[in-house]
Amino acid sequence: MSSAKETPNKQQLPPSLDLKNWLPFVKKWSIITETLWLIPKRDNSGSMKELHHGEFIPQIPRQAILRFTKPYELVIDPFVGYGTTLVECQRLGRNGIGVELERHIAEVANRRIKEEQNPYNVKVEVIEGDSSDFDFNEILHERNFAEASLIIAHPPYHDIIKYGQDPRNLANARTLEDFLQAYGKVLDNVLRVLARSGYYVLVIGDKYTKGEWIPLGFHTMNETLKRGLKLKAICVKNFEETMAKRRQINLWKYRTLKLGTYFFKHEYVMFFRKE
Ligand SMILES: C[S@@+](CC[C@H](N)C(=O)[O-])C[C@H]1O[C@@H](n2cnc3c(N)ncnc32)[C@H](O)[C@@H]1O
């Protein structure tokens, strides 16, 4: 299996799916075409060697980028966090813009993209801002991009992780309704710059509140469908133990038995297309 950190020679073009010769590409990049994503190990290469609570594994944006963009097209991540999407853009020869509300998190993303090589000389950028009112049109115009081919959105799973104190952070929404409203605002804002036939990829998990399952995945899916996007796939990805849970695995198992609940082992990767 190829990893995205391979250093190409100068003449090599970024990887691109060509349906006339798809099989070698699918094999080389381990492209997943099924809805159950069992990814045994996080790619810890390069700047991904450090782990941050709440980030996704690089293989998620990699799959989306390789399937739904061509070399040098633009990818936007409105919840860019620690920069995983942008690192993958850089490795795969796609331009990328990521927006992050919290300065201390944006700084990590910036550091990571500087640590990585830029073999295809693409532009990737982390911008500190609030994605619900960020002027995506203006930034695209300034950077000479007409539109984005792909949006990858990995919002907070409501309040399960605290990213910072800013009330505009979706993780600080007081109620589920406030969270969904804030998610919808970001969605309305960012979808303006998505190309027609472009893909919107939503990565999210569910949560428990006081022993009750809260299906954040289906709530956010419904918010997304309200915007007229076409649902193309719901993939279920296995969830490795988080750093916190790894340390206390038996305690977590005991809790699920005691409360009559289940231990989270999956999250969703949903694919929508702008018609
Ligand atoms: C689940 S994390 C994303 C992690 C990212 N995929 C990665 O691999 O590092 C969600 C991120 O969204 C950010 N965020 C929350 N509300 C935001 C808003 N209104 N505008 C921009 N970023 C926001 C949080 O601070 C957090 O870093």
Write structural notes for this entry.
This protein has 275 residues and is of the alpha/beta class. It has one domain (42-273): Vaccinia Virus protein VP39 (Rossmann fold). Helix 4 (103-115) links the parallel strand 3 (95-100) and strand 4. The chain has helices at residues 22-28, 59-68, 84-92, 103-115, 136-142, 176-191, 216-226, 243-247, 249-259; strands at residues 36-37, 74-77, 95-100, 124-128, 148-153, 194-204, 207-209, 212-214, 230-238, 266-273. The mean pLDDT is 94. Bound molecules: S-adenosylmethionine.
Offer a few descriptive terms.
eight-stranded mixed sheet; 275 residues; alpha/beta; two-stranded antiparallel sheet
Element layout with pairings:
Blueprint: H1 22-28, E1 36-37, H2 59-68, E2 74-77, H3 84-92, E3 95-100, H4 103-115, E4 124-128, H5 136-142, E5 148-153, H6 176-191, E6 194-204, E7 207-209, E8 212-214, H7 216-226, E9 230-238, H8 243-247, H9 249-259, E10 266-273
Parallel strand pairs: 1-9, 2-3, 2-5, 3-4, 5-6
Antiparallel strand pairs: 6-10, 7-8, 9-10
Helix pairs in contact: 2-3, 6-7
The structure holds S-adenosylmethionine (SAM).
